[in-house]
Amino acid sequence: MSDVPADLDWIRAAPEDATGPGPWIEVAFTESEDPEAPVYIRETSDPDNVVTTNRRKWDAFVLGVQAGEFDHFVEGVELDTTPER
Predict the structure, then answer these.
(1) I want to staple 58 with a disulfide (CB 3.0 to 4.6 A). Which of 39, 51, 63, 70 is the partner?
(2) Host H or E run for residue 38
């Protein structure tokens, strides 16, 4: 993880009312607006395991999620609405 900047501001992808430790996905961006600038992704349960992509690919992924291109991955999966303790 030595190539991951230590001063990143990690954004947790969790519902606003979520409590508990997760696990959640977290994303961090660098200050650069360059489409090739790195985007870092990790899971809260394993913060040392960081995946890196770039802004261009991240933006394409987010647009694909919004367009429903990944809905087939969750067909038949039920949302767990059990409150965390």
Answers:
(1) 39
(2) strand 38-43
